[in-house]
Amino acid sequence: MNEILRVEELSKSYKKGKKAVDSLSFSVHEGEIFALIGPNGAGKTTTIRMIATLITPTSGDAFVDGHSIIREADKVRSAITYLPDEAGAYKTMKGIDYLYFMAGLFCKTSEETERCVSRAVKMCGLGDRLEERINGYSRGMIRKLLLSRAVMTRPKLAILDEATSGLDVINALDIRKTIKQLSKEEGMSFLLSSHNMLEIEYVSDRVGIMNRGNLMVTGSVEELKSRYSAANLEEVFERVVNSDEIR
Amino acid sequence: MKFGNILKKELRELLTVQTILSMLVVFFVYAFMGKAMGGAINDAVTSGESMTVINLDGSDFTARMLDSLPDYGFTPQISELESENYFTEMERLGTESMIVIPAGFGESAQKGGGAEVEVYTLMNKGGFGSALTGSHAFSGVYAIESYVSDSFQNDVLGLSEEEKAYLSEPVVTAEYVCANGRTENISAESLMSVMMSQSILAPAAVFFLLMMAAQMLMTAISTEKIDKTLETLLSAPVSRLTVLCAKMTAALAVALLNAGFMIGGMMIYMSSMMSSAMSDISASGEAGEAITAAEAAASLGLTLTAGETAVYGLMIFLSIAIGLAISLILGAMATDIKSVQTLLTPVMMLTMVPFLVTVLTDINALPTAFRVILYLIPFTHTYTAMTNLVFGNTGLVWAGVAYQLLFFAVCMYLAVKVFTSDLLFTMSFSVNSPKKKSKSTRNKGLQTEDREQ
To answer: By CB count within 10 A, which of A109, B155, B311, B371 is most buried?
Structure first.
């Protein structure tokens, strides 16, 4: 399978001598769902922001579809979409206008824009509510709108930070199903970050556990459970974080 | 295309029904206030032509005088007192001021000395109207003075008409204003309306423009940062400079529109006020004025030439650009709505303090230390530019332009640096206690809502 994301010795320091991310290396393949998990302050969001070209690495590099996040940031941005944790949308806009606005930033022709928007309209399932201002949307509706926006352009890599945070069970299940479907049927790659171990266990092909800026371990959920003799991913997570040992 | 797309989005965000309504409300409030105030001044001036007069003097002289006062432009409303409490009497008579002619007035007037009238003013309201009430009576007093003077000249001194005319205006005042090395036959009061627009309206326009633009851009940037729509936007294939330019252009355009409405309303307000005040001044007579105030101002070089207007426009543009650059930097630091309000305070102070000083006093007459501090604020140069340009202080103006260009370059460099670097997402200013945050980030819980770095 093609390598869509390759992260090589990626590091980020905010303050002198204190590394938020320390020499991180991993890869995500085409059609793969890779999840980064870790406690608060582990460096997940910093890693994701570097890959999304929002902040620059102190050292190392990452390549999206072969393009460097440092030297070819504009090409990287054309190949990815990013959905931040607890992100909002422009409240004074109607849902449909938001989709057109975002599609306009990615698409080069109006035909392409129309195709993207109609895909998002179908995917988000908001129907007539798209003609209303986002101001009146529930949290679940906003998240569905944002997720459909994130995948409407068929990016090589969709980066989703806490894709289902704050959603009820039904909405969260809907979004997980959509992610799996897009990965299996359309070969879209995902880089996820979540605190919800059940979600990660259900949706991910491979998992990377981070702690204090380091990537402690990577592997499929089944591999990790057997390696740590754990009943579930939560137990794996607890043992990895408590042992603080890189494997 | 992407610039246009983002600009359209920014304009749509800034130009909501509420903002358009607030612009219209401000315009109509000013316009209405101007008309109402102008009307109040006119009413005050015209009401002086007729007033309550209490005659406590039973002499024939006073009776003849009261009959003749309409010939002197004053119609007395003769009334009787029912008590000696003037407050309740004025309330009963429904008058705000009245003239009382005491007993013995006629005798004193005919003798040629010591004649006295009493003027009573009811003070039972605040605001601008109360200041005008007391002046109502003086047109009546002026008429009484004229009658007594004429009677004395006719009956006691036996003067001819020529002699009386001479005594009524023994000295004719011809007023001149000297400015920029030239002199014009016009009174300083007449020039007031023209100068008011330069010394108050122009700085006020710049002040409002600056405030609106700064506030809008700061809110736009901070809202996007707080809602995390900025992260989504900047991870899309669009350059950060394009986003920056679109935001600044939209803030400038809406600020111009907003200031246009406000200044339009203010102009109506000022012109209504000034035309009322000026009609009062002209009624009292300015001897020998041959040209209008506007013509005199132009002749004296007190209006801007095309070149000077261009320089002034450049300074306004530079001030707004500086304000926008500062707002962008501060807006990027905001972490919540409270911090936006706190961060707006220094911008408000920097724009408001020099504005108030400019309007209330002449900066160039202040002690050197104050002057230097004020001129270190780049906006001061724009506030004072109009006056400095018309009075030929061009050196000060050009120094101001140079300083503003330098200040703008530094601010813009910093703004671009912030917007195109990690600082946009890493620097923050919060009014909340930092202790709370550091404590929460130590938790290793799986489902906490705390943000990680």
So the answer is: B311
Query: How buried is B106 (Cβ within 10 angstroms: 0-12 exposed, 13-18 middle, 19+ buried)?
Result: buried
Domain ranges of chain B: 2-35+193-434, 44-171
- Whether residue A88 lies within 8 A of chain B, CB to CB, comes out as yes
The answer to whether A232 contacts chain B (CB < 8 Å) is no
Check residues A66 and B50 and name the one with the higher pLDDT.
A66
Dist. CA A10–CA A7, nearest whole Å: 6
Q: Which of B5, B446, B452 is opposite residue A41, by nearest beta carbon?
A: B452
What are the structural domain ranges in chain A?
A: 3-89+155-243
- Coil/strand/helix, residue B197: helix
Name every residue whose Cβ is closer than 8 Å to that of residue A57 and which is 6 or more positions away in sequence: A10, A11, A12, A21, A50, A69, A70
Encoded amino acid at B278, one letter: M
Pick the CATH number of B44-171 from 3.40.50.300, 3.40.1710.10, 3.50.50.100, 1.10.760.10: 3.40.1710.10
Q: How far apart are CA A10 and CA A5, in angstroms?
A: 12
- The pLDDT tens digits of the residues spanning A32-79 come to 999 999 998 889 999 999 999 999 999 999 999 999 999 999 999 999
Answer yes or no: do B2 and A102 touch at CB < 8 A: no
DSSP secondary structure of B1-19: -HHHHHHHHHHHHHS-HHH
Q: What pTM value is reported for the model?
A: 0.74
- ipTM more than 0.90? yes
The CATH-assigned architecture of domain A3-89+155-243 is: 3-Layer(aba) Sandwich (3.40)
Please write the tens of the pLDDT for every residue from B248-286: 898 888 878 877 787 777 777 767 666 655 554 444 444
DSSP B118: E
Contact at CB, A83 and B232, closer than 8 angstroms: yes
- Distance from C-alpha of B276 to C-alpha of B255, rounded to nearest angstrom: 31
d(CA B100, CA B119): 6
The rounded distance, in Å, linking the Cα atoms of B125 and B404 is 47
